[in-house]
Design brief:
Layout: E1 9-10, E2 19-20, E3 22-23, H1 31-40, H2 47-50, E4 58-64, E5 71-76, E6 82-88, H3 93-110, H4 115-126, H5 132-140, H6 146-159, E7 163-168, H7 175-184, E8 191-196, E9 199-201, E10 207-209, E11 212-216, H8 239-265, E12 283-287, E13 295-302, E14 307-314, H9 319-329, H10 331-337, E15 343-347, E16 350-357, H11 365-393, H12 395-401
Parallel strand pairs: 6-7, 7-8
Antiparallel strand pairs: 1-2, 3-9, 4-5, 5-6, 8-11, 9-10, 12-13, 13-14, 14-16, 15-16
């Protein structure tokens, strides 16, 4: 069953009739209004429910410039932990699809900065002399130690220890698609939260903000080896092992380049379909709308076999597998809709809908280009045909689970 939220009800003090509050009819006109709400009232964000370590952030500025673009809202805790907020109106389908990638790009850029870089850009954005970043934080925490704060901020930036928040004006079709994407990419080095912020009007005309946490991800901790400036770290290894490692890195880099080229040229008709990031593996996963992220398209390249392809995947004994079996039962029509190029095969007792192209020499530029075009077309076709069928097939499961 889809998530439903009812308007809040005001119970007057001392009795009287309950009053159902009305939504803010004027609506939020643009993303700048969300930015202003977040900047002026950072306490409205449900940070304690996402990661209590980031409680009490100080709003620093809006539209902080980075090489990846401007961060809508930048905040930092007195302990030196950065908080990045991306604000979106869900009515924009293109924004829904790209918002996750945007905020991750911002985090990637900040992980290359030091506290000095951040101070410089904040000073430039606010057009204030001195160190306005430190001044703003110190206004909230007068006993702040400048050296400790700068050291902690630099360390957290370099370790990628951020809280990333995506804040929207209210539930719209497509918000769940963002949640699916985040669930499929939970292995990130950040804490992430998806927050909606509907607004209601009180009888006296003032507004009531009711933030809701739709999704959060767990933090995956990286092991970091710190080395004094000017020194390097080198393990004693045999020459053969070093060569093997170099070859493996070269292979990983080549895979990343292939998938980056594939994704750059991929045009999807469905604006709600989340896109994965380029990977250093032989495959990518495109999540489909099934509970617990249990259904996805696997897009693969087999370099040794000279083959590329795409197939419908699902976790065993999951809603995604139920959907996969339901789609397989309607195979003649599905095959038609897929252009007759896909096959239904049995894989260990489970149906697999797959399309492959073989006999490719990836070192030949023309064959590589043809393979990429073929794969891009097949992925778009699989998304168009299978995504709505998966969503329809799991409706009954969602209803029973509710």
């Amino acid at each position: 069953m889809a998530r439903q939220h009812c308007p809040p009800v005001l119970l007057p003090n001392g009795g009287g009739n309950a009053v159902a509050l009305l939504p803010y009819r004027q609506g939020i006109k643009d993303e700048a209004e969300i930015q202003m709400l977040v900047h002026e009232h950072p306490s409205c964000l449900p940070i304690g429910e996402i990661d209590p370590m980031f409680l009490g952030p100080v709003a620093i500025c809006r539209e902080l410039q980075t090489p990846a673009g401007p961060i809508d809202n930048f905040m930092v805790t007195p302990s030196g932990l950065p908080v990045l907020v991306e604000c979106k109106l869900w009515r924009n389908p293109e924004g829904r699809r790209e918002v996750v990638g945007q905020i991750l790009d911002y985090a990637k850029e900040l992980s290359r900065w030091s506290s000095s870089d951040l101070q410089r850009e904040v000073r430039r954005r606010l057009k204030l002399a001195g160190n306005p970043l430190l001044d703003l934080v110190r206004a909230a925490r007068p006993d702040l130690d400048e050296i400790e704060f700068n050291d902690a901020l630099t360390a957290n930036l370099r370790r990628g220890r951020f809280l990333l928040l995506i804040v929207g004006d209210g539930i719209r079709e497509g918000v769940e698609a963002i949640a699916e994407y985040l669930q499929e990419h939970a292995g990130l080095h950040f804490s992430l939260g998806l927050v909606e912020m509907p607004i209601f009007v009180l009888p006296d005309g003032s507004r009531l903000l009711t933030p809701r946490l739709l999704l959060r991800t767990a933090v995956v901790t990286r092991t970091v080896i710190s080395v004094p400036d000017g020194y390097g770290f080198q393990e004693e290894e045999q020459g053969a092992q070093l060569d093997a490692d170099r070859n493996q890195r070269k292979s990983h880099d080549e895979r990343f380049a292939f998938w980056a080229e594939f994704l750059n040229g991929l045009e999807l008709d469905d604006p709600e379909q989340p896109r994965p990031r380029p990977a250093k593996m032989g495959y990518l996963a495109f999540p489909l709308p099934a509970p617990q992220g249990s259904s996805w398209l696997t897009v693969f390249r087999d370099l040794k076999a000279g083959e590329v392809g795409v197939f419908l995947s699902a976790n065993r004994d999951s809603p995604g597998e139920l959907a996969m079996r339901a789609i397989a039962e309607d195979w003649p029509q599905v095959r038609n809709e897929l252009g007759g190029v896909a096959q239904l095969v049995d894989k260990n007792g489970r149906p697999r809908i797959i399309a492959t192209l073989s006999g490719i020499s990836f070192d030949q530029a023309d064959e590589r280009k043809s393979a990429l075009l073929w794969l891009q077309e097949r992925v778009n076709s699989f998304v168009n045909v299978l995504r709505p069928r998966v969503r329809s097939a799991v409706v009954g499961y969602r209803r029973d689970a509710a």
